[in-house]
From TrEMBL:
Residues 1-20 are annotated as: Disordered. It comes from Candidatus Kaiserbacteria bacterium GW2011_GWC2_49_12. This is Uncharacterized protein.
Length: 330
């Protein structure tokens, strides 16, 4: 079976465990410091049912041909809360990612293999308002699962840059990051599609977790209350347009190929865990033949996902489906 994470110093030369240990994870002294500053954060996440989550991700990996023992499950010790201001004062690899995370709820850094949660922002949004204070553990769990899904997706790093202290070629799930020149920064491909797949899968795992896991943060009443609130407040869900893009893409492939949507979706999940390369020309040509235009090229750098969703929805018309099926029947 394949492994869930592959790190290469350069193509064909895997990194040694000793070198990885120097660059990855959260130093023990930093963990202890954050525990002192943000005790509530750790009080909540340490009640999470990590064995259940790890088993759930392991089952998905197994179906994707990945050895469950090799999945890159972070757990509590490799997640840290991002401070509101001191992030600028923290140098190096962790400080750089903390500054980035201050722009959103959370992030996962493939270089350091650490998950970051914007705890001050989350605390301000939910913890300081009595009427929605009960939502705080749910939103922490939701963000945690999303970033954990990034972490367990197929991760590949190559071409380590000694001076910059990071890899030049990376892929996590469907998203690819590449730069040939340090001064240019990086180019991202399939970021929106990857986020849509990750969030759609994460929502499935979240709902499954709330119904079946052993987590003392939540009781039956609060879970039912959250599920109702979640249903009634769709505007507060993450990556709404990205999920819509994934769902319309799934529906289009299903209708053209007469394969059930759930089977197509499970194939997409498998690609997330296998690290399917959507820049592969054969895959691009196949999808273009199915949908009638170079969809993957547009998806690779799309910024306005809503516009692309509208374009895809037009392709699901009965006339288009009949025309494609006629083409395949010849």
């Amino acid at each position: 079976m394949k492994e869930g994470r592959e790190i290469f110093r350069r193509p064909g030369h895997p990194e040694s465990k000793e070198d990885l240990a120097k660059r990855e994870g959260v130093p023990l002294e930093m963990q202890q410091r954050f525990r002192e500053v943000y005790p509530e954060f750790y009080q909540i996440i340490e009640k999470f049912d990590f064995p259940y989550l790890k088993e759930r991700y392991g089952d998905i990996a197994r179906r994707s041909g990945i050895n469950p023992r090799t999945i890159n499950f972070l757990g509590a010790n490799n997640f840290i809360p991002v401070p509101q201001r001191p992030a600028r004062q923290i140098p190096g690899r962790l400080g750089r990612m903390m500054r980035y995370t201050q722009e959103g709820r959370g992030s996962y850094d493939l270089d350091t293999n650490v998950g970051h949660i914007n705890w001050p922002m989350m605390r301000e949004m939910h913890g300081n308002k009595e009427e929605i204070q009960w939502l705080l553990p749910f939103h922490l769990l939701r963000t945690f699962i999303h970033e954990e899904t990034h972490a367990v997706s197929k991760g590949v790093c190559t071409a380590f840059d000694e001076e910059a202290g990071k890899y030049r070629e990376k892929q996590t799930g469907y998203e690819q990051w590449s730069t040939a020149d340090r001064e240019r920064g990086g180019e991202y491909f399939f970021k929106r599609f990857d986020e849509g797949v990750v969030e759609k899968l994460s929502q499935e795992i979240l709902l499954d977790y709330l119904k079946n896991a052993r987590d003392s943060n939540f009781d039956v009443t609060s879970v039912v209350r959250f599920l109702e609130w979640h249903k009634e407040n769709p505007e507060l869900k993450s990556y709404v347009n990205e999920i819509k893009m994934v769902e319309v893409f799934t529906k289009l492939i299903s209708k053209v190929t007469s394969v059930p949507e759930e089977v197509v979706w499970q194939g997409i999940v498998r690609g997330l865990f296998e690290g399917e390369n959507l820049k592969n020309q054969e895959i691009k040509d196949l999808v273009e033949e199915i949908v009638g235009f170079d969809l993957l090229e547009e998806m690779s750098t799309v910024r306005d996902t809503e516009e692309l969703v509208q374009k895809l929805e037009k392709k699901i018309s009965p006339t288009f489906i009949d025309r494609i099926k006629l083409l395949y029947s010849r």
